[in-house]
């Protein structure tokens, strides 16, 4: 692909992206595919020769898009927002075109210098303590852009571990590092992100998850009790991770209480604000900064709630030498003459290679400004509050946890199984996508505001879906509603049903007569359920096609004469015997059990399906004929056929 081809294809791709985002509501929010679907669609080996761009884009539509979970969909309410905006997309496009690997100042000076400036801009936007900012005089603080909050937690835990081992090695010089390592213990709440536990596994240290209070917050008294108990056991506490905006319910730990204890006992205090930290750009959330004077490190993700595309997690640290002394590996080929005068971020992270992530921060902040980003966050909070009010107004539901940001955790009152069924029905419908959480043993549904332009209409739609699904879950199975006047579509379906049954009855009347009996066959019939959307003509045709297949003998064989075996062979394409929906009679059947049968249908009631639509139920009842007279055989099983 040369420059001219790239120009043409990039214009087409830009149009494709805009069309996708503008019409994303047309997609099913969660893909209807099974694991392994793509392997069946792609060749086993890579192409030997290059392929045409048009063919690649064609496969994007037919093979890639069907398997996409649409995180930018207005009906996507799972996890947390995945930041996305056109300025960020354009910045990544330019960054990819520049193609530099900014592991040091010499590798690409602008990568390092713009990153440091963006760290300072964001720190001031969030009103962080000055000891964390990079340009504060006589301070050793600074910041770096990592790939994710998980990396931030791991990096700070490794730095804290190195610091603790050095300190205790000086105190106990005769004890091996490996022995000291087995005694180190870190702390977090039982609602902290799973990355804290994973960081402990990688760091070979114990991690204790502590219980929260009734507001799902980790308190200082709980931490202090755990520390004292572990010290009595001979363990060495060294690291505490607090959270601003937990994943489970967006609760925040008591930062001031935890920080004070950490300072008194010499523990590293890290605060994970991956989602909630973004809200600090709004003055009304400044109360969350209480206790930040004790913080040794802090991170938040602009790629969650600041319109910046993944990946971009910003981290600040009180003492940058704690990082550089932990990760400093300085071979000759990476050294340069400005080592002492410039920052080399390769000493701040685990990977050597680094992307030009600061560019998209610069694009987004300049495009929207602080006010634009504040407006975006405040709108999400507003919509979450609106959804919370709708939940509280329905006495079947309850909200767990205080709604302070863009997340609402709610559940049906009663057993957890009710809420589990509700969430499964919602997600299976494809109308919304949400995920669960567990709060002190209670199963809850997380409703996160994620769409960039989330509106009241989106919230109302989501609540309507939740209510309709709840009606289905909470309604007794046998509950029926009063019959309504049939629609034109109902009449068409009913006419088809009666036509089919009359043809089938006529067919049986013309077969040779046999003595009737009141005995019934021991063969039981399964329920038949034929489904189709009433409003959809295609679904109607599909429903009729299924009915035709069930009663094909009634439609395709209006007049059948011959032996009973011949009749049975005509009834079932599989030969003599019985097939679903039709009970047959053979010459081998005992004389006393032979009879003629027919099926007729009549509407008996209307029910509400999972989507709140009325559906018409037909009672399919077997009748026996004796000497041409129709008699209702009450001993025969009834079946229900439903069309909706």
Automatic annotation (TrEMBL):
<dbReference type="InterPro" id="IPR015424">
    <property type="entry name" value="PyrdxlP-dep_Trfase"/>
</dbReference>
<dbReference type="GO" id="GO:0016831">
    <property type="term" value="F:carboxy-lyase activity"/>
</dbReference>
<feature type="compositionally biased region" description="Low complexity">
    <location>
        <begin position="513"/>
        <end position="523"/>
    </location>
</feature>
<dbReference type="GO" id="GO:0006520">
    <property type="term" value="P:amino acid metabolic process"/>
</dbReference>
<keyword id="KW-0210">Decarboxylase</keyword>
<dbReference type="Pfam" id="PF00282">
    <property type="entry name" value="Pyridoxal_deC"/>
</dbReference>
<dbReference type="GO" id="GO:0030170">
    <property type="term" value="F:pyridoxal phosphate binding"/>
</dbReference>
<comment type="similarity">
    <text>Belongs to the group II decarboxylase family.</text>
</comment>
<dbReference type="InterPro" id="IPR015422">
    <property type="entry name" value="PyrdxlP-dep_Trfase_small"/>
</dbReference>
<dbReference type="GO" id="GO:0019752">
    <property type="term" value="P:carboxylic acid metabolic process"/>
</dbReference>
<feature type="region of interest" description="Disordered">
    <location>
        <begin position="507"/>
        <end position="536"/>
    </location>
</feature>
<feature type="modified residue" description="N6-(pyridoxal phosphate)lysine">
    <location>
        <position position="304"/>
    </location>
</feature>
<dbReference type="GO" id="GO:0005737">
    <property type="term" value="C:cytoplasm"/>
</dbReference>
<dbReference type="InterPro" id="IPR010977">
    <property type="entry name" value="Aromatic_deC"/>
</dbReference>
<feature type="region of interest" description="Disordered">
    <location>
        <begin position="564"/>
        <end position="598"/>
    </location>
</feature>
<protein>
    <recommendedName>
        <fullName>Aromatic-L-amino-acid decarboxylase</fullName>
    </recommendedName>
</protein>
<keyword id="KW-0456">Lyase</keyword>
<dbReference type="InterPro" id="IPR021115">
    <property type="entry name" value="Pyridoxal-P_BS"/>
</dbReference>
<dbReference type="InterPro" id="IPR002129">
    <property type="entry name" value="PyrdxlP-dep_de-COase"/>
</dbReference>
<keyword id="KW-0663">Pyridoxal phosphate</keyword>
<dbReference type="InterPro" id="IPR015421">
    <property type="entry name" value="PyrdxlP-dep_Trfase_major"/>
</dbReference>
């Amino acid at each position: 692909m040369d420059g001219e081809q790239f120009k043409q294809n990039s214009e087409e791709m830009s149009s494709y992206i805009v069309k996708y985002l503008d019409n994303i509501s047309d997609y099913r929010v969660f893909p209807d595919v099974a694991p392994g679907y793509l392997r069946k669609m792609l060749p086993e080996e890579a192409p030997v020769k290059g392929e045409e761009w048009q063919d690649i884009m064609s496969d994007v539509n037919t093979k890639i898009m069907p398997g996409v979970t649409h995180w930018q969909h207005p009906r996507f309410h799972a996890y947390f927002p995945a930041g996305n905006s056109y300025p960020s997309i354009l910045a990544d496009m330019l960054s990819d075109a520049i193609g530099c690997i900014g592991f040091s100042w010499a590798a690409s000076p602008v990568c390092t210098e713009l990153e440091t400036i963006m760290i300072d801009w964001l720190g001031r936007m969030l009103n962080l303590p000055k000891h964390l900012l990079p340009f504060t005089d006589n301070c050793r603080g600074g910041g770096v852009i990592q790939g994710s909050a998980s990396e931030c937690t791991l990096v700070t835990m490794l730095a804290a571990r190195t610091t603790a081992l050095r300190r205790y090695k000086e105190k106990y010089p005769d004890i091996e590092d490996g022995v000291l390592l087995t005694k180190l213990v870190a702390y977090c709440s039982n609602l902290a992100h799973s990355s804290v536990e994973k960081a402990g596994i990688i760091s070979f240290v114990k991690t204790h998850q502590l219980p929260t209070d009734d507001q799902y917050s980790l308190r200082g008294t709980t931490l202090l009790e755990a520390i004292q108990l572990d010290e009595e056991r001979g363990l060495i506490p060294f690291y505490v991770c607090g959270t601003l905006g937990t994943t489970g319910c967006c609760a925040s730990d008591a930062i001031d209480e935890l920080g004070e204890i950490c300072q008194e006992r010499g523990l590293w205090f890290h605060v994970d604000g991956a989602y909630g930290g973004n809200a600090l750009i709004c003055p009304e959330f400044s109360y969350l900064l209480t206790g930040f004077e004790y913080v040794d490190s802090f991170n938040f993700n602009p790629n969650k709630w600041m319109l910046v595309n993944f990946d971009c997690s910003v981290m600040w640290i009180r003492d940058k030498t704690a990082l550089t002394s932990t990760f400093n590996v300085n071979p000759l080929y990476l050294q340069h003459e400005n080592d002492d005068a410039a920052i080399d971020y390769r000493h701040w992270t685990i990977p050597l290679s680094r992307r030009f992530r600061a560019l998209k921060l610069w694009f987004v902040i300049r495009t929207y400004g602080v006010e634009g980003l504040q407006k975006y966050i405040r709108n999400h909070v507003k919509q979450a509050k609106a959804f919370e009010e709708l939940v509280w107004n329905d006495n079947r539901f309850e909200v767990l946890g205080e709604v302070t940001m863009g997340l609402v955790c709610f559940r049906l009152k009663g057993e957890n199984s009710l809420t589990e069924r509700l969430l499964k029905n919602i997600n299976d419908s494809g109308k919304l996508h949400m995920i669960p959480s567990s709060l002190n043993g209670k199963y809850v549904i997380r409703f996160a505001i994620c769409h960039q332009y989330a509106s009241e209409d989106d919230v109302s739609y989501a609540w309507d879906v939740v209510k309709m699904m709840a009606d289905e879950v909470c309604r007794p199975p046998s509950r029926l509603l009063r019959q309504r006047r049939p629609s034109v579509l109902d009449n068409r379906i009913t006419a088809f049903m009666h036509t089919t049954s009359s043809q089938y009855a006529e067919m049986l009347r013309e077969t040779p007569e046999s003595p009737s009996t009141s005995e019934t066959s021991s063969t039981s019939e399964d329920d038949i359920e034929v489904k189709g959307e009433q409003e959809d003509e295609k679904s109607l045709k599909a429903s009729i096609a299924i009915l035709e297949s069930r009663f094909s003998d009634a439609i395709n064989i209006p007049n059948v004469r011959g032996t009973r075996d011949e009749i049975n062979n005509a009834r079932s394409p599989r030969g003599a015997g019985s097939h679903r929906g039709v009970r047959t009679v053979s010459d081998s059947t005992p004389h006393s059990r032979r009879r003629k049968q027919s099926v007729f249908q009549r509407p008996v009631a209307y029910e509400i399906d999972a989507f709140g639509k009325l559906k018409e139920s037909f009672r399919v009842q077997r009748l026996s004929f004796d000497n041409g007279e129709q008699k209702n055989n009450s001993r025969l099983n009834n079946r229900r056929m439903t069309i909706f």
